[in-house]
Amino acid sequence: MSKYEELQTKYNEEEKKYKNGEQVDKLRLFYMGQALNAVDYTKRAFGVELDFSEESIKALEGILDRLEQIVKIEKPSDEQILLFSRAYAGYIGQVIIFKWGGKWIDEKEFNIDNGPALRVYISWERNLFLLSKVYRRITQGASENIWGFYQMIKSETK
User: Where would you tag: which of 36, 101, 120, 131 has the fewest CB atoms within 10 A of its CB?
Assistant: First the structure.
């Protein structure tokens, strides 16, 4: 079973529980759905297959670079940029969860307005504000490189 299929199965199970009134982690469910949306959209729009591997983060950096160029030309609304940011933050988060584990934490737990965080336990507990990171990558450019960010996180696991 591919990681996509594994995630789709988990998502469907959690969504069924939610619809039946059972308690689920809604933030986790949301970002699992966003990750699946990112894979589907990227394949349709860019012809690139994201497979939840580390190498796919490098491919995603190229997609975000293309989105940055599109944003410069078409000037979409913040809400439209946030749609992409949420999907790709979910994707990156799921790659990290597959690799090291982690839990989505609601932004209400923080004193800053930076969106939810993915809490990972690498060398120490770390909160990754992936939504704001992806948003900045799309709007501010290559200085917010996602592949470099991922490599930094990976280096902290050693």
Answer: 101
